[in-house]
Amino acid sequence: MAISIAPYTADWILAVKAFNQRLAAGGVGAEFRFPESNIPHWLPEIDDRTIYQRYYLAVDGEQVRGAFILKHQEFRLRQGSAKIVYYHLPLSEGIVNKSYSSVGVLMLRSALKVEPSLYCLGMGGFDRPLPTMLKALRWSMCAVPFYFRVVRPSRFLREVQPVRRTPLRRLLADAGAFSGLGWLAIHALQTVRSRRPFADATTEPIVNFGDWADALWVRGAPQYPLIASRESRVLNVLYPSGKNFLCYKVSRGNDLIGWFVALDTQMKDNKYFGNLRIGAIADCLATPENARSVIEAARTVLTERGVDLVVANHSHQEWGSAFTSAGFFEGPSNFIFAASRDLSDRLGPFPEVQHQIYLMRGDGDGPVNL
Amino acid sequence: MTSSPILDRVSAIAADVLQVPASSLSLQSSPETVESWDSVRHLDLVLALEQEFHLQFEPEEIDQMKNAERIVDILSAKTPTR
Fold first, then answer.
1. Residue A103 and residue B39: Cβ atoms within 8 Å?
2. CATH number 1.25.40.20 given to A146-331
3. How far apart are the C-alpha atoms of A194 and A205, rounded to whole Å?
4. CATH topology for A3-115?
5. Mean pLDDT over residues A190-201, rounded?
6. What residues form DSSP beta bridges with A6?
7. Tell me, what CATH number does B39's domain have?
8. What is the pLDDT of residues A247-294, one digit of tens each?
9. ipTM, 2 decimals?
10. Is A52 exposed, middle or buried (0-12, 13-18, 19+ CB in 10 A)?
11. In angstroms, what separates the C-alpha of A31 from chain B's closest C-alpha?
12. A288 partner at 20 to 30 Å CA-CA among A36, A164, A265, A316?
């Protein structure tokens, strides 16, 4: 039976459940399951929204052998508006049954045929199967840098798993945590890295994004060669009120200079963060010259809430410098951006442009992974 | 494999991509019979064949590439005879 790509309709729900069961039986991790509802819980295609997801299946007779999601979103690309599509959660039965080795390629080639300007984000590191496949297809790829600032050094030393990977490192981390030397060392390093105290901005919590956000978008977007739309109509869909998003305006004097969206999450036996309380700067916008003020404002809000660690991913070089100036360390990143050849051609020379594009966690695959 | 110009080229490319001796491949060779023929190698094989034959496979053709014989058939149909 030939495999073809079909939109995920309600008729396929039972077949998707069976597909998920076969992946589970083959030992595939629980995070790799396709939604067992054909209507996306996050970003469904409704009304005149310009940001939405569509689910697709690779079907073989009455069986599902693969699946993927396309997230449609408006971007500003090189001073123009562009619809660029995020290819995510591709799952192929080929990972548990070699008879379906071609499904992964088939799905990606099918998606590219319909949407040549595709990108992928996240993926867990360059050595994973999807980035390996994208590299073979000569997609342009880079890691989106990861920044962190420790608020409670003793808890950081006791909980952050990469620091505690070997018995010796665990011993040293515990010694640092209990003696107070760890606190001293981390505090001193972060203070030295912060160029000077920088508390020039004020923050105001917001419930919705309004015209003010559109004004910031008009000012900020042209500074970046590739940035997903951060207009109010999009932001109110991505970060609706009543959820756990901490949304703030940032001002300097009477001038509104930016906004940020943060999350305050208590981790539980997380493979990276143990049981730390993590403050994540999931999204923000400002012009590059105001980056540090927005970062400092977000860090202050999260610190005052009592988080142990503040984290963020940001692809833009000047924002990276602003994080470093604000005392953040850069850590290893497994948050990978990959642009299809068509998208890469539209962007221009990738080695240069990769440091100018604007990507954060908020551009990824939804609130679960922020 | 029985020799033909396309078959010889497919055999050489498959051996190189799958890192097996060409002599171990047959028309029936498939992901089920060749240990190293997984999803990533399948993509490598598709790309290597596209480069060698200066063509691009349609998604449905990629699906049909279940074994060496089908690959040769698809390439024979896509490659102009001289």
1. yes
2. no
3. 25
4. Aminopeptidase (3.40.630)
5. 67
6. A57
7. 1.10.1200.10
8. 999 999 999 999 999 999 999 988 888 899 999 999 999 999 999 999
9. 0.73
10. middle
11. 20
12. A265
